[in-house]
Amino acid sequence: MPLPNILVTGTPGTGKSELCRALETKLGFKWQSVSKIVSDNSFVEEYDEEFECPVLDEDRLLDFLEPIMQQGGNIVEYHSSEFFPERWFAAVYVVRCSTSILYERLQAREYGDRKIKSNMECEIFQIPLDEARDAYRKEIIFELTSDTQEDLEKNVQQVYDWLMEWKKGDASESETND
């Protein structure tokens, strides 16, 4: 049985990449940064001037990811989640952070005022969390706070603990099926 796939989602600036980098090291999973995949493979339909970002070609991305996801052991990171098939993931982690910290992080990235405002609204209205709740079973969705280095360490440990439990459950299912 292959390792499970995990989705890490949340508003830009909440700490998804930092978490994925740490998880890749701790779990030995392959980090699939959707933004990087999209950029490397030109999976872009157009550029959205209003939101100052490229518009993703979801079909081409999903076709590209399908064989990778079948292998298991992937951490997929993206700020949106609803278009990924639920069957790909055993767990969905939504990374959140306080708005004051998020604002500072987005300013440090030199985002424009409109982009900062849009991302702040996404976090305030918990758009990524609601999107995950609409797309996936509630029992596989976990909300993580990522304000501090201590939070990051706790989050890595929480995902590691989840994986150990998943492996136990997978082993007991295998024994019952034998």
From TrEMBL:
InterPro entries: Adenyl_kinase_AK6, P-loop_NTPase. GO terms for biological process: ribosomal small subunit biogenesis; rRNA processing. GO terms for molecular function: AMP kinase activity; ATP binding; ATP hydrolysis activity. One of its GO terms (cellular component) is cytoplasm. It is an enzyme of class 2 (transferase). It is found in: Cytoplasm; Nucleus. Its EC number is 2.7.4.3. Residues 33-56 are annotated as: NMPbind. Residues 108-118 are annotated as: LID. The keyword ATP-binding applies. ATP binds at G13, G15, K16, S17, R109. It catalyses: ATP + H2O = ADP + phosphate + H(+); AMP + ATP = 2 ADP. Transmembrane segments: none annotated. Keywords: ATP-binding, Cytoplasm, Kinase, Nucleotide-binding, Nucleus, Ribosome biogenesis, rRNA processing, Transferase. Belongs to the adenylate kinase family. AK6 subfamily. HAMAP family: Adenylate_kinase_AK6 (MF_00039). Broad-specificity nucleoside monophosphate (NMP) kinase that catalyzes the reversible transfer of the terminal phosphate group between nucleoside triphosphates and monophosphates. Has also ATPase activity. Involved in the late cytoplasmic maturation steps of the 40S ribosomal particles, specifically 18S rRNA maturation. While NMP activity is not required for ribosome maturation, ATPase activity is. Associates transiently with small ribosomal subunit protein uS11. ATP hydrolysis breaks the interaction with uS11. Monomer and homodimer. Interacts with small ribosomal subunit protein uS11. Not a structural component of 43S pre-ribosomes, but transiently interacts with them by binding to uS11. PANTHER family: ADENYLATE KINASE ISOENZYME 6 (PTHR12595:SF0), POS9-ACTIVATING FACTOR FAP7-RELATED (PTHR12595). This is Adenylate kinase isoenzyme 6 homolog.
